[in-house]
Amino acid sequence: MRSERDAFLQARQRGLGGSDIGAILGISPFKTAVDVFLDKTNPHPKDIQTELTRWGQALEPVIAQRFAQDHGMKVIRPETSAQHPQHPWMIAHLDGIIVHDTPGVLEVKNVNAFGAKAWGNEGSDEVPLPYVAQCAWYMAIKNYDYAVIAALFGGNDYREFRLERDRELEQHLIEKGQAFWFNHVLARCAPEATSSHDLLQLLKHDNGQSVEASDALFECYTQRQSRKAQIKQLEHEIEQLELQIKTAMGEAATLTWQGQTLATWKTQNTRRFDLKAFEAAHPDLSATFRRTCETRVLRLK
139: part of which helix (H) or strand (E)? Predict the structure, then answer.
């Protein structure tokens, strides 16, 4: 099982997959273009699996079987990745291929109950944008005219969504993917960072040197300091308003206005781990579980 997973991770580095294109476009909530760049250029790709992804992989065959049974169709689960015939850097790790008079892509999703609000009515094409891009990517690679997303919500709510091929969207994705693959991955030139997470990924260590700020950068610094002061003032004002509300409520648990609940102020118990007490009682044991974490910290003076 481990060798199969390693083979999958290595194959993923040979091109851009369906989950990569959404990140490249900046519409993925799971990763950024910098994450994709580092994943493709690192000789030892990270294997980060969450509980959701683990269960998603385990449930893929079950969800695919449900689709096949409901429609009386055969579903093939490819053992190897597919490549675009003209663009070999376009790859697809398909969950399934619908065997029919006109074959199609079957994409399987395991969605938590909280994510359901991002989806439309069953049978529609109203799905989150990253999955629209993913399915369009797969249809382009396989030259199929449709894709079906079989999704399981909250572990017990099965729904299906159908997307038709969009040639204009497809061409846009290919152009963006091609530019990213050749200008960034093959050129070993990282894309522009769009978040602090990206910067920490690209610039993990300082060189100990100093850099002189330009006029534009100094203006950025002064604006940041001004905004910070404004936030601090607003936080103080909020604290004072909350103090007035609590004072007026007294021992009451709920504040209402014309039958509408505005706020609650209820007594509750919280169990927390007392780290200081544990260290005092078990100094040797606590030292065993300590680890050093390295990061870069920005401190504005």
Answer: helix 129-142
Region for 146 from its dihedrals, namely left if φ exceeds 0, alpha if ψ lies in -120 to 50, beta otherwise: beta
Alpha carbon separation from 222 to 110, 245, 298 (Å, rounded): 46, 35, 15
Beta carbons of 118 and 109 less than 8 angstroms apart = no
Residue 125 in contact with residue 107, Cβ under 8 Å? no
Q: Which residues pair with 257 in a beta bridge?
A: 260
Any idea what DSSP says for residue 190? P
Residue type, 284: D
The string of pLDDT tens digits covering residues 54-85 is 887 888 999 999 999 999 999 999 988 999 99
Q: Look at residue 91 and give its three-state secondary structure.
A: strand
pLDDT in tens, 289-301: 887 777 777 777 7
Q: DSSP letter for 118, please.
A: G
Q: What pLDDT does residue 214 have?
A: 96
Q: Which of the 8 DSSP states describes residue 193?
A: P
Q: How far is CA 217 from CA 196, 223, 224, in A?
A: 17, 10, 11
* Interatomic CA distance for residues 116 and 151, integer angstroms: 10
Distances in whole angstroms, Cα of residue 207 to Cα of each of 197, 214, 256: 19, 20, 57
Give the Cα separation of 100 and 89 in Å (integer).
28
pLDDT at 211: 93
Distance from chain centroid for Cα 44? 21
- Tokens 């169709």 identify what position? 73
